[in-house]
């Protein structure tokens, strides 16, 4: 079932085939498409978090130079409601006077130049009638609601209360994580071109077909009349995975005005225009025997969602699959607040949940006097502890062993605060990582041309993960041709359908479709090495869900932190991560994915927090000066190892997903290392210096 390795392209570290295009500026991102005679759109946002629009004063804005039209709820066409994804937000823009959150689009100014649109947007005056607002979800946990999420909100196995009642040692702790934003380098942009009754969108999208489905639906036009093109995406991390008001508004404006409309979000807009990762309140209760075996695990989580839209960050998921225990109870609830709707962000669910769960486990290990790594080994789950089914593949034991060896875990002194270098306190911490696996139905077409060139066509996206390189490697490998002879065309709904580039799924999904197409092409060739006419083959991947198997990726993460004794600014000196994540197609881009994830983990542990003004319901700093992400100086030694393995159940390639796995467990390992260095347990992330004083 797995790839026949011809020249062993798969598994060979290969530089990005699109690297030259990117560094030379030839790569075309959404806003880069040259267009004749475009109009420019600038969005105006609500300054209040709740209430209604009483009136607009548009006189100055409308008479400003170059203004073509100002859309508000008073003159915008009615949109067709849609109650589910691919919309990230079902509360559609400019449809009523209702205000649900600060930053909600209330007007779209269209002008001949960007500067004219920006100028006129500043002249738009809105009179609001302010309503009561609820901003802080933590103040309203008792108003929790059940929300439908990507995963079940609750699970229960065994009797947790009985288990806790009989436990020798118990831990009951509450952890908090902060609101975070995706902040991709490329802010979302949409260029809408309505021409001859058909709409083309040049968009920054993680799922071109999803944009097509949603935009066609809400504009009430046939699917076939919409084409979405997304050739290069400057980072997505989840925020470009769904369809948001700005994409709809750009399309609407182009239809109304009969000209191309270019709409680029500003950095400030990106804080309210396309979701965020929720803050969380997570209570973890663990019970164990004296020798460190779990008898009960309880993980409850609360996160915010919007007034008119449901999103559930299922933080309590790691507890479901990570460790053996006869009793496991998980529960996820949401609290409505006057803020935009959250959305997945690398790494959602397990990535947020692991912060609390893996730190709580560390606390239990100290309480028992058991080495944290040993604690995890004693509770190693041979089967999925919630479903009782075997894992499709799991080599986590190897990850622990290799990770401990590479990191030098044995050099760790068991007592916190006892490892020092002069005035520097040194801490070693570790955590486990587990991440769900999803696959998407995908199709691909491969053509062999006379002369030997091979062209792959598939509507998947490359958002930086390396699909421009990985997919040609798969085809080259299967066909036995050099990778340089393979070209790929992607990111266009006119191509064979593929799934979204999210959920760490593209290599498995589009990759398996490409592999199938290559196998078919080989069959059609029947031993020939060349063709006189182009020869095309199609391939399809239809993932089969099986309740008999549990499918995850795993990792073991070790971190060393340095904390100055007097000025406690934690520094991450090094991270070692070892991963059980299926066959690695391209070790070079795979390592890139993991070190990117680790860097996100450093941000989650120490820096990233979107602070809110609880009175105004507004993010305090909608920019990269106020929202601090790791810079190069924050990222030192990152050591990445993949276990050599092939998961035949996950995909035809034996590959699994790694786009998000690297961001899981890192913050917990760092938090645990900070405790080991200082003896101070911080349960409020990010761990800023003031929390260690
Ligand atoms: Mo990812 S948060 O599924 O783009």
- What's the overall geometry? globular
**Structural class by helix and strand composition:** alpha+beta
CATH topology of the largest domain: Aldehyde Oxidoreductase, domain 4
Number of strands: 26
What's the Cα radius of gyration? 26 Å
Q: In the residues, how many domains can be counted?
A: 3
Distance between the termini: 57 Å
The major pleated sheet works out as: 7 strands, mixed
How many H/I helical runs? 14
Low-confidence stretches: 1-6
Strand order of the largest sheet: 3-5-1-12-9-10-11
Which architecture of the largest domain per CATH? 2-Layer Sandwich
Bound molecules: dioxothiomolybdenum(VI) ion
CATH structural class of the largest domain = Alpha Beta
The helix fraction, in percent, is 10-25%
Within CATH, the superfamily of the largest domain carries the name Aldehyde oxidase/xanthine dehydrogenase, molybdopterin binding domain
Strand content: 15-25%
Mean pLDDT: 96
Please characterize this protein's 3D structure:
The protein has 693 residues and is an alpha+beta fold. The protein has three domains: 33-131 and 182-271, Aldehyde oxidase/xanthine dehydrogenase, molybdopterin binding domain (Aldehyde Oxidoreductase, domain 4, 2-Layer Sandwich); 154-180 and 276-437 and 548-692, Aldehyde oxidase/xanthine dehydrogenase, molybdopterin binding domain (Aldehyde Oxidoreductase, domain 4, 2-Layer Sandwich); 440-541, Aldehyde Oxidoreductase, domain 4 (2-Layer Sandwich). Helices cover 23% and strands 24% of the residues. It has helices at residues 19-23, 59-62, 114-123, 160-165, 208-219, 245-257, 318-321, 350-368, 372-378, 396-407, 467-479, 506-525, 587-607, 666-678; strands spanning 39-45, 51-57, 67-71, 98-99, 105-111, 125-130, 154-157, 169-177, 189-195, 198-203, 226-229, 261-264, 280-288, 294-305, 328-336, 420-421, 424-436, 442-448, 454-457, 486-489, 535-541, 552-564, 571-580, 612-613, 618-619, 637-642. It has a seven-stranded mixed β-sheet with strand order 3-5-1-12-9-10-11, sandwiched between helices. It has a five-stranded mixed β-sheet with strand order 7-15-14-13-8. Residues 206, 236-238, 241, 344-346, 348, 502-503, 660 line the site of dioxothiomolybdenum(VI) ion.
């Amino acid at each position: 079932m797995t790839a026949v390795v011809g020249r062993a392209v798969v598994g060979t570290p290969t530089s990005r085939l699109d690297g030259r295009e990117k560094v030379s500026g030839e790569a075309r991102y959404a806003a880069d498409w040259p267009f004749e005679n475009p109009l420019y759109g600038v969005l105006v946002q609500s300054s209040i978090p709740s209430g209604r629009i009483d009136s607009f004063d548009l006189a100055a804005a409308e008479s400003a130079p170059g203004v073509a039209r100002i859309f508000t709820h008073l003159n915008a066409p009615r949109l067709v409601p849609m109650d589910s994804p691919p919309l990230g937000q079902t509360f559609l823009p400019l449809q009523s006077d209702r205000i649900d959150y600060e930053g909600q689009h209330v007007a779209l100014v269209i002008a001949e130049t960007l500067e004219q649109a920006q100028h006129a947007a500043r002249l738009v005056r809105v009179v609001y009638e302010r309503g009561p607002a609820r901003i802080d979800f933590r103040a309203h946990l008792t108003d929790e609601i059940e929300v439908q999420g990507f995963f079940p909100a609750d699970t229960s196995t065994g009797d947790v209360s009985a288990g806790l009642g009989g436990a020798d040692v118990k831990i009951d702790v509450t952890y908090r994580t902060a609101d975070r934003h995706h902040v991709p380098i490329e802010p979302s942009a949409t260029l809408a071109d309505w021409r001859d009754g058909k709409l083309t969108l040049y968009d920054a999208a993680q799922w071109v077909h999803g944009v097509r489905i949603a935009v066609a639906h809400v504009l009430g036009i046939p699917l076939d009349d919409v084409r979405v093109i997304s050739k290069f995406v400057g980072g997505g991390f989840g925020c470009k995975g769904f369809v948001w008001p700005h994409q709809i508004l750009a399309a609407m404006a182009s239809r109304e005005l009969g000209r191309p409309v270019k709409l680029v979000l500003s950095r400030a807009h990106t804080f309210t225009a396309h979701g965020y990762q929720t803050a969380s309140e997570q209570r973890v209760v663990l019970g164990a025997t004296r020798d460190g075996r779990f008898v009960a695990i309880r993980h409850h989580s609360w996160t915010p969602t919007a007034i008119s839209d449901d999103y559930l960050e299922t933080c309590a998921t790691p507890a479901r699959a990570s460790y053996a225990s006869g009793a496991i109870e998980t529960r996820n609830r949401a609290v409505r607040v006057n803020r935009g709707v959250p959305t997945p962000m690398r790494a959602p669910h397990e990535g947020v949940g692991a912060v609390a769960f893996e730190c709580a486990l560390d606390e239990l290990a100290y309480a028992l006097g058991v080495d944290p790594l040993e604690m995890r080994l004693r509770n190693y789950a041979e089967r999925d502890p919630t479903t009782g089914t075997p894992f499709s593949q799991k080599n986590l034991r190897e990850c622990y062993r290799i990770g401990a060896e590479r990191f030098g875990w044995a050099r760790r002194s068991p007592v916190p605060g006892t490892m020092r270098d002069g005035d520097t306190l040194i801490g070693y911490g570790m955590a486990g990582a587990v991440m769900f696996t999803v696959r998407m139905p995908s199709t691909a077409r491969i053509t062999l041309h006379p002369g030997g060139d091979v062209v792959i066509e598939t509507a998947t996206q490359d958002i930086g993960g390396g699909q421009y390189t990985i997919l040609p490697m798969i085809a080259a490998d299967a066909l036995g041709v050099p990778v340089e002879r393979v070209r790929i065309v992607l990111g266009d709904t006119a191509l064979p359908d593929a799934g979204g580039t999210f959920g760490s799924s593209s290599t498995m999904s589009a990759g398996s479709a490409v592999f199938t197409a290559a196998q078919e092409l080989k069959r059609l060739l029947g031993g020939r090495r060349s063709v006189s006419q182009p020869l095309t083959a199609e391939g399809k991947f239809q993932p089969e869900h099986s309740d008999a198997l549990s499918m995850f990726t795993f990792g073991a993460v070790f971190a060393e932190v340095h904390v100055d004794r007097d000025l406690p600014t934690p520094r991450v000196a090094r991270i070692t991560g070892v991963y059980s994540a299926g066959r690695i197609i391209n070790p070079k881009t795979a390592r890139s994915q993991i070190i990117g994830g680790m860097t996100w983990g450093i941000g989650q542990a120490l820096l990233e927090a979107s602070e809110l003004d609880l009175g105004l319901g507004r993010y305090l700093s909608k920019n990269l000066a106020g929202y601090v992400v790791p810079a190069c100086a924050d990222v030192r030694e990152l050591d990445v190892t993949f276990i050599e393995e092939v998961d035949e159940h996950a995909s035809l390639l034996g590959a699994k997903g790694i786009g998000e796995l690297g961001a899981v467990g890192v913050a917990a390992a760092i938090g645990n290392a900070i405790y080991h260095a200082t003896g101070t347990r911080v349960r409020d992330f990010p761990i800023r210096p003031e929390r260690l004083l």
